Amino acid sequence: MPHSLLALLTLLTACQPTLDVEYAKPDTSADTTDTAAGDTGAGDTATDDTSSLDTGTAELDDADGDTFTVAQGDCDDTDPTVYPGADEAATNGVDNDCDRLVDEDAEGEATDGDGDGYAVEDGDCDDLDASVHPGVAEVPGDARDNDCDGTVDEGSSTSGDADGDGYTIADGDCDDTRGDVYPGAREAADGVDNDCDGRVDGGGGRYDGDRDGYEAVGLGGDDCDDGDPSVRPGAPDDTPDGVDNDCDGTADEDAPPDYDGDGWTLADGDCNDRDARVYPTADETVPDGDDDDCDGATDEDAPEDYDGDGYTTAEGDCADWAPGIYPGRPEGGYRDGVDNDCDGYTDEEAVPDYDGDRVTRSAGDCIDTDATVYPGAPERADGLDNDCDGTVDEGTGTDDDGDGYTEADGDCDDAAGATYPGAREVIDGADNDCNGRVDG
User: Fold this and answer.
1) Gap between the terminal Cα atoms of the chain
2) What is the tally of structural domains in the chain?
3) Counting CB atoms within 10 angstroms of each CB, which of 104, 339, 368, 437 has the fewest?
4) Domain that holds residue 428
5) Alpha carbons 130 and 144: distance in angstroms, whole number
6) Is the pTM for the entire model greater than 0.70?
């Protein structure tokens, strides 16, 4: 080769720029000429230099450009068709949507992703792990459903009560993942052997849920509502309630024409033949929330502010027939089960009255679990301070302090055992001997 040509090639080689390799180590120097993709130097001009995908950390980078990183659940960050939520319709032997199931939505021949002989269509619940498939032995304590039967670690441990129903597998719990399944549980019409007796729904698929002597229609019987004992074959169907009580396919066929005796039948337009106040032409002047005259409108003839509490229905009075109920009224100090202030909540400001005597503990009820005890209650000979005055059974002929004297016997303080007629008087500021004199 001529020396002149060799010199030219040497010169050209020396002028080639150093190539940056993004996956090896990004060039972050403050160069002014480098334009390689992946650089972050001050002079870089490549369009991907400002991308958030390149962080220098593999788990945080989106290597395949599908907008998901490894940290975000991308199970193959080299394939842009693989990411959480991707289409799994193609039969390609790949877990495209990263749910550990292969080709579960694909049509055509099933794919066995992990080569264990079972595809998703065959019941494989983890088609990326060959140790997981129907029929395999359950691995003790690995917290996985190895045999894909819907239960984790069944039979692998008999000492724990996994579902908290008080029974372990060793105790005979036939499904330790369900709290309603254990020996002796009530059998429900749910297709499950609830009481672990080996029979589903009581045996033979039949079950009498409401104990009315008739078994459920859906499980081989003829009870059309096995949750209501008043509904069964042969039951009376003489109430106009819209229910087929006798399970013959017709509702209310035995009900009298005018059940409520208001002079109007259902055929006449009575929209509620169980309420004698409701019938066509009935008075609609009371704002009771009912369509009394069966015209499809409620309380249309009621005057404004019917109860005279200063609020109309239009102004938010939720019970314009009750003067004690209106917007802004205090809910009161006890629970009455009424929305007194029309805010949609009941007793939200009330202090609990546990015994229902309408006096709370904060109001002086000294035993708020006994409705016979509250301030001012009649005193009873029951060993309790019924009237909350600090004295037990006063005036009842009972010797409360056990000193051998009742109030009827002249005990002037039947709560103090050292005070009774004839007791020794001591200097204590009390009339110990009940002679009407203190300390003397």
Assistant:
1) 144
2) 1
3) 437
4) 402-440
5) 13
6) no
